[in-house]
Design a protein that fits this description.
With 120 residues, the chain is of the alpha/beta class. It has three helices and five strands, in the order βαββαβαβ. This is DsrE/DsrF-like family protein.
Length: 120
Amino acid sequence: MSYSTLIWLQSSPYNSSAAREALDYILALAAVDCPAQLLLSGPAVCLLQPHADVSAALQLKDCSKLLGLFELYDLPVPLVCQDSLNQYQPEPGQLNQAITLLSKQQITERLARFQHVVTL
């Protein structure tokens, strides 16, 4: 299936509200039946770690639990950059979410499938 919107999160969930904004955005799209997919790369893969706790100094809420709503909203599992996962989360068995791993080349190929790409 071709998804019309790709939400590409590249920001850490620990130092900004971008992760929460990305998850809110994709859930809002799903709520109105707009096809969407989430891609995590760079420090954004930390969102997949169990007990991902955000910085109290920034007063950010832990938004990783929103990933659990993907199934409820019939969203596909997040796409994740393999290189980023290796850098930030070396043990895939400890992830708190089902994912689809992609190489950088596969990510480039997949970008052509989307009508809109939103990067955060």
